[in-house]
Amino acid sequence: MPREEYYEEEYYPPEKEEGGFQGFLNEQLKRAPWWLLSVGIHLSAGLFFWLTASFTNYDGEKEVEVTSKIEQKPEEEVEEEIERDVFEHDKEINTDEPPIEDPVLKDAEVSDHNETDNNEDYESSKGQEDAISDKPFQGKYWNSAIGIGGGAGGCFGGRFGGKRNLRAYGGGRKTESAVMAGLIWLKNHQNPDGMWSTDKFMSNCKAGTCTGKGSVADYDMGNTGLALLAFLGAGHTHMHGKFKRTVKEALRAIKDRQLPNGCFGTQTGDGHWIYNHLVTTMAISEAYGLSKKTPMLLSMAQKGVDYLVECQNPYLGWRYGCKPGDNDSSCTGWAVLALKSAKLSGLTVPKEAFDGATNWFDKVTDDTYYKAGYTTKGDSGARLAGAKNFKPLEAMTAAAVVSRIFMGASAKNPKIIGGGNLMKQALPKWDVQEGTIDMYYWYYGSLAMFQLGGAFWQAWNTAMKDALVPTQQTKGCPNGSWDPVCAWGEAGGRVYSTAINVLSLEIYYRYGRVLGKK
User: Rounded mean pLDDT of 1-20?
Assistant: First the structure.
């Protein structure tokens, strides 16, 4: 078949033969005299101008002034007490719903001078540009997603934008009500100097007196760091959210108590101060990550990170003090959390620090069930002398699993899947008599099981909500807090139990998912 030749030429539409009334009308118009058409056009124009004048009859010498008044809504204050939301039934949660990307936080508008003080050290709070979506690991240790919590934020962005992933990941109005109540309790029990007291927080009680003081006053810095993390976890910074003053005073208090060597808080002889430093370094790193234009936070955070790295045992992990020679999985887990937050916030973190943590967790994880020990392979962990009735659970396994995920382990890694299976057999259960309450384990378990997703997360999430939401105090001054009836409650007290449980209930939006699990 020969190829057709094509030429460019002007196109004219074919003429169509018209009939009926339209054809008759066209024919009569062709025969009409031109003067008749002119008269019709002038009549139409005159009618148009007459109608226009009728609707715009005003004095041309007067200017019409249009004014508008925009009333700026005053900044919302958080009430001292809240009426707790009570929901008989939460809607069915679709855990397979894909996450929605949250927007990057814009600079906050300040309307209350007294609330922010416009201190030059506190310039603005803006989310990171890469904190707007879930992102997989891009390389061992150096990924741009933190991935130990929920939400759409690759780094910290999922905490903003209305928490639109709350239901997609299994949360709801009950969990958010519990988070807000917990934050308000923490706000109301913050000391005037910005700290949270482990054993004297009751001096801030306003409606009666709370019980549950901690036994170790030396943990005030650690509890302050933990409480600050709870506010940051819900997106509240010194320039954004309902608790700006609370967060700002906490940051100032921590700054005033950082030692010249970078350590946060007093260094006691027993070396237990390392917990204070680990938790607070994590909090300051996240605070800086959420407010990149705050030079004061940059200096504080980097000094804290540098000293944390200095305290690490060569090629292994951390324990009490600086380079003590022995290691444990609890201190090492907190160190990995702190260094990961620091790395994602743009701080300088040496790769060797993560290498050592990996070596330690591999050293204490058995190769059969993949249980992680506390100081040795196969041990059952540690308990306070007054808390021996609480069963040893899988807290160190949970810390090892989430640390490995942080450090780039594959979702198919048998140590991760095996650890998930162990945690699935030890789900949260609030039972004082059976000794199953371990809020520390529940926090690490929530981080780890959320990453594993699927059946792991569904089973854990249901049990975690059932353990925490109904047991939160709802009356009087303790409203919003949790009784410290757990393995470590004797030491940390009500401030500890409330802060760490709030962190567990923020799991749905606190960070992005790394493993891409549903």
Answer: 39
pLDDT tens for residues 191-223? 999 999 999 999 999 878 899 999 888 999 999
What's the CA angle centered on 134, arms 128 and 140, to 5 degrees? 90
CA 265 to chain centre: 26
Residue 419 neighbours by CB under 8 Å, 6+ apart: 370, 371, 372, 394, 397, 398, 400, 401, 448
Residue 300: how many other CB atoms lie within 10 Å: 23
User: 160 pLDDT exceeds 90?
Assistant: no
Q: What is the pLDDT of residues 333-372, one digit of tens each?
A: 999 999 999 999 999 999 999 999 999 999 999 999 999 9
Residue 131, classed as helix, strand or coil, is: coil
Pair of tokens at residue 454 = 């699927």
Please report which confidence band the pLDDT of residue 44 belongs to, taking 50, 70 and 90 as the band edges.
low
Task: Measure CA 94 to chain center.
Answer: 21
Q: Phi and psi for 365 in degrees, rounded to 5?
A: -105, 125
Q: Which two tokens stand for residue 476?
A: 């009087």
∠ CA 252-253-257, nearest 5°, is 115
Domain range annotation of the chain = 129-505
Q: How far is CA 273 from CA 363, 385, 468, in A?
A: 25, 19, 29
Per-residue model confidence as pLDDT tens digits over 94-115 = 333 333 332 222 222 222 323 3
Q: What is the pLDDT of residues 392-406, one digit of tens each?
A: 999 999 999 999 998
Q: What gap in Å lies between CA 403 and CA 333, rounded to an integer?
A: 6
For 129-505, CATH number out of 1.50.10.20, 3.40.50.1820, 3.20.20.370, 3.30.1300.10 equals: 1.50.10.20
Task: Extract the tokens encoding 2.
Answer: 């020969």
Strand runs labelled E in 316-396: none
Angle at 296 between CA 295 and CA 301, to 5 degrees: 100
CA distance 318 to 311: 7
For the chain, count helices (H), then strands (E).
15, 0
Task: Indicate the angle between helix axes 454-468 and 489-505, nearest 10 degrees.
Answer: 120
Mapped onto helix, strand or coil, the DSSP state of residue 328 is strand
Per-residue pLDDT for 445 more than 80? Answer: yes
